[in-house]
Amino acid sequence: MFKQKNLIFIGAPGAGKGTISALVLAEQPLVHISTGDLLRDEIKRDTQLGREASTLMKAGKLVPDEVVAGMVRSRLSQPDCRKEGFILDGFPRTIRQAELLADALRELGTQLDRVVYLKVDDDLLLQRLTARQNCRKCGAIYNKIFQPSKQENICDKCGGELFQRPDDSLETAKSRLEVFYRQTQPLIDYYDKLGLLLTITETDKAKIMATLEKELA
Ligand code: ADP
Ligand code: ZN
């Protein structure tokens, strides 16, 4: 169990934020806040916000800072986040978002404990991204190369159909990495200066978990 419970996970697309979050959540009842998931939910419900976000997401571009920060703020103000702690997955992605987050946390009378940076080489990131599959029904994540389902295109967990997200093509993947280095990399220095950064260069899941258990204890 972690003592440090208010966490941010930073990593390029494909770095494994989602996978590692899921492993952490299996052990600890933190609230998982993924802006990617929140946005995809808006798209599914065909809201105004979802329609605007959809075009940007397909192009591998970021949704405006104020929009995502607003979604996160309203989620953070719910009582379970205070009680259990939270993992922010995929947010903040820009310095502006980090500032809006700091404002929101201050207003809520709480603070960050640690920022976990999953640092992975570009080659591996591109390989992972372009081979990724999601389950249509339960959202489980597979990878055709690294973590294939037992039966091709069928979810091991629920039998649902696996599909490739439109933002997982090679061209889009490259563009997303470029966006990461340009807009999100500065956050790493920002949180390092605040003394909150924990950089993990392991790519093995078990080793990453062992490091987290030691560092966040
Ligand atoms: P991954 O988990 O593969 O890194 P996400 O699912 O977090 O990607 O995000 C998918 C897309 O949703 C992003 O490419 C971007 O368009 C949008 N998005 C998600 N989070 C944010 C954010 N914090 N700021 C701006 N756009 C975001
Ligand atoms: Zn499934």
Describe this structure in words.
It is a single chain. This protein is an alpha/beta fold and 217 residues long. The chain has a domain at 6-120 and 181-215: P-loop containing nucleotide triphosphate hydrolases (Rossmann fold), CATH 3.40.50.300. It has 9 helices and 8 strands. The strands form 2 sheets. The protein has a 5-stranded parallel beta sheet with strand order 2-3-1-4-8, with helices on both faces. Strands 6-5-7 form a 3-stranded antiparallel beta sheet. It is globular, with a radius of gyration of 17 Å. Zinc ion binds next to loops.
Q: Roughly what percent helix?
A: 40-55%
H and E order: EHEHHHHEHEHEEEHEH
CATH architecture label of the domain at 6-120 and 181-215: 3-Layer(aba) Sandwich
**Biggest sheet: strands side by side, in what order?**
2-3-1-4-8
Quickly name the level 1 CATH class of the domain at 6-120 and 181-215.
Answer: Alpha Beta
Helix/strand/pairing category: alpha/beta
The major sheet is characterized as: 5 strands, parallel
Assembly state here?
single chain
N-to-C span: 7 Å
Mean pLDDT: 92
Give the tags.
217 residues; Rossmann fold; binds adenosine-5'-diphosphate; three-stranded antiparallel beta sheet; 8 strands; five-stranded parallel beta sheet
